[in-house]
Amino acid sequence: MAAEAVVYVRTLYPQNRRSGSHSHRRLCSCIRACQPSNDKSKFYKELGLFSLRKRIEDTVMNAEMLAPSALEAEEATRSKQEEIINGYDLWDDLNRTNDSLLKLADSSEVVDSLKDLQFKAEEARLITELAGKDVIDYRLLKQAYTASVDIKKSLDKYKISKLLKGPYDAEGACVIIEAGSEGELSENQIWADRLLKMYTKWARKQGYNGRVIEKRASKIGGIKSAIIEFESKYAYGYLSGERGVHCVTRSSQSQSQCDEVSLAAVNVIPLFLNTAPDLIIDDMDLDVSYIAASKHKHRVIESVCIQHVPTGLKVQSSDLYSWHQFVDV
């Protein structure tokens, strides 16, 4: 960058022969002095390094403040779970045994993650100190910053797991998206497709195992409905707040018309990963319907719908089944 200096020059013109007066004018001349910007570059570089080190130190300090007390509490919980398991015969009540073993495994996993968090925090602190001695080692500083990012993610994950205490928050999730039937149908279906892409992109970013198990495309663009399964822990806790009607409002091109609104309904139900409640369902309470079609001289099932009559709960699958597969199911 160049430093710029402005110099004002006052010039007296010669006498005007016609008027016999002197005219005084001020001329402004801009002189640019090109000076080296090394000092400014050095300042910004030092400022960036200070900000980076401050961020690393704050993350490490938060981890060192939280991890010891959290680790002590989680180790006490694990010890209590071990006492419960040792206090009775595992073969007396298999359901109770499975529940206790799952809780013990969860406690052990949390304890291991907190120990790993403490190790990473200590490592990041030592690397930061080494990187700042005499000559700054940018390679070490980058390594410390990467470790601090992992520490922050682990801290956030642990804090959120403590907040998600609902009965099914630790389970996976099944997200059902349906385009709205009111308003402009094509825009509703396009909006539903955008929601589908948003949830799948969010799953990839979170490292979740999300897969689209059903997708009903529309001929005019977008989707009619879709079902996504997230087979990851705490997925239901994260996504349960998405339940409801999602809308987007767009300004109408014509001032005389109202704003255009696109609607899509989202439902979230828990997806049991390790255990599922033992439910006894009478076959007489189920209403099974299907849509059949002929394809390549074979009878296939395009859609199967099962409704539990007493509760009104309904499940549907749009995968193609052969008639023999449908009879077996």
UniProtKB/TrEMBL annotation:
Q: Name one GO cellular component term.
A: chloroplast stroma
- The Peptide chain release factor domain sits at 129-242
Q: Name one GO biological process term.
A: translational termination
Q: Which InterPro entries match?
A: PCRF, Pep_chain_release_fac_I_sf
| A Pfam family matched in the record | PCRF
Q: Name one GO molecular function term.
A: mRNA 3'-UTR binding
From which domain of life does this come?
A: Eukaryota
Q: Which PANTHER family match?
A: PEPTIDE CHAIN RELEASE FACTOR 2, PEPTIDE CHAIN RELEASE FACTOR PRFB3, CHLOROPLASTIC
Return the protein name. Answer: Peptide chain release factor domain-containing protein
Protein's organism? Daucus carota subsp. sativus
Instruction: Please spell out the taxonomic lineage of the organism that makes this protein.
Output: Eukaryota, Viridiplantae, Streptophyta, Embryophyta, Tracheophyta
